[in-house]
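Record filed here:
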Amino acid sequence: MKFNKSENGGVFFNSYLATLKNEKDESFSHNFYVSKENTFTAKEAVNLLEGRSVKIEFHNPKTDQVEPAFVKLDFKEPKTEKGNYNFQNFYKNYGIDTAEIVEKSNLVFDKPEYKENTIKSLEKGNVVKVKFELDDGVIEGEAVLNPQYKNLNLYDQDMNRINTNKPLQGLEDEREHDKANVREQSIKR
């Protein structure tokens, strides 16, 4: 964690370095800046370092407006001079509607309020326990929002991918996507 002291004696929390080591013994680290407008929680930082997208309120340089956007760390590009990954950004004009994605994914909710909680959790980049229809039955599993392809990645309870989303057939690793298939904007943050 990095703190700075002002001339008046005030102390400010400016950034924190988050490092994630996965089961393959690979290490990913990124310095997350802290501000009033754009601060990632520790859980969101972990989700980003694990390769998932997080929804935030973001200043869009093209429109000069603050608007919702999904961000994802770009592990394929080299790190910046400050040792950070670039972000891939998917702004609202990209057409991501989480509620619509959930609706089309055949998820089953025991209570209506579970649907709203699931949507919020998916937008934070969490792996969410869900029930979904598959082969004329309902099974329990996990879901991850994939805003880049506007769908959910569904997994069984052992985290084996279930390709129920037609646009993603044949795509197993989200980090190895073909950049030619999507318009994106990478910026330093």
Summary: The CA atoms of residues 70 and 147 lie 7 Å apart.
